[in-house]
């Protein structure tokens, strides 16, 4: 068997386009998942039993159901009730919902790790509960959660490869098309392996650097 990466040279632009689509989908999903995760974490630490239960149901569903089942439900199931989304929007929504469930665990842990003395001092100063969380609890929780959130983002990148199942030509989808066109699956998927490794390594490196920068004055 010969190994010739030069055969893929004409397709590098397609792979680059797929990589950009993967990066965009994951960046949007990270933002969406962060918002959902913060909301779910606040509900899971709320005094209301109903709020805690609703959040736990959301987390349990999207953390314990296979991602491809969630994806197929959104892409093929929702149109049956009149809700139609294109492949990219469906992919971002699916990643956001799944990412939010995992992000809520990270944020919740950060909230619970805030020292009681900090909360007591803030309450004595007369801050409302909303101001307390907005100005003190969430900033501390997010600062301590940078590394775990980096891991969630890495997982989103890896999970995004499944979006090719709904005809989205992200990185994996583009690679599948190229492999079919060139009849060189070994070279194509070897390159794909390297690209995913580089992407996830860069995210992990960036998360570590951001964590050190945000926490350098906090021990």
Automatic annotation (TrEMBL):
Subcellular location: Cell inner membrane; Cell membrane
Transmembrane spans: 20-43, 149-168, 188-210
Main location as per UniProt: membrane
Topology of this chain in the membrane: Multi-pass membrane protein
Domain of life: Bacteria
Alphabetical keyword list: Amino-acid transport, Cell membrane, Membrane, Transmembrane, Transmembrane helix, Transport
Name of one Pfam family that matches: BPD_transp_1
Domain ABC transmembrane type-1: 15-204
InterPro entries found in the cross-reference section: AA_ABC_transptr_permease_3TM, ArtM/GltK/GlnP/TcyL/YhdX-like, MetI-like, MetI-like_sf
PANTHER family named among the record's database cross-references: GLUTAMINE TRANSPORT SYSTEM PERMEASE PROTEIN GLNP, MEMBRANE COMPONENT OF AMINO ACID ABC TRANSPORTER
Family the UniProt entry places it in: Belongs to the binding-protein-dependent transport system permease family. HisMQ subfamily.
Reported function: Part of the binding-protein-dependent transport system for glutamine; probably responsible for the translocation of the substrate across the membrane.
Protein name: Amino acid ABC transporter permease
Origin species: Massilia terrae
Lineage: Bacteria, Pseudomonadati, Pseudomonadota, Betaproteobacteria, Burkholderiales
């Amino acid at each position: 068997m010969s190994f010739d990466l030069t055969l893929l040279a004409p397709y590098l632009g397609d792979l680059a386009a797929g990589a950009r689509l993967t990066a965009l989908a994951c960046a949007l999903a990270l933002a969406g998942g962060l918002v959902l995760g913060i909301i779910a974490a606040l509900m899971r630490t709320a005094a209301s039993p109903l709020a805690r239960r609703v959040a736990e149901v959301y987390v349990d569903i999207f953390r314990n159901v296979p991602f491809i089942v969630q994806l197929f439900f959104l892409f093929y199931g929702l149109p049956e009730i009149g809700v139609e989304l294109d492949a990219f929007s469906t992919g971002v929504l699916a990643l956001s919902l799944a990412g939010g469930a995992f992000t809520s665990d990270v944020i919740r842990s950060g909230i619970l790790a805030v020292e009681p003395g900090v909360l007591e001092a803030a309450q004595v100063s007369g801050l409302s509960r909303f101001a307390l969380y907005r100005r003190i609890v969430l900033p501390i929780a997010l600062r301590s959660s940078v590394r775990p959130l980096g891991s969630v983002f890495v997982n989103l990148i890896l999970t995004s490869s499944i979006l090719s199942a709904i005809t989205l030509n992200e990185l994996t989808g583009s690679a599948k098309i190229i492999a079919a066109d060139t009849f060189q699956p070994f070279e194509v998927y070897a390159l794909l392996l390297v690209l995913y490794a580089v992407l996830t390594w860069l995210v992990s490196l960036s998360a570590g650097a951001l964590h050190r920068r945000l926490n350098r004055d906090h021990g």
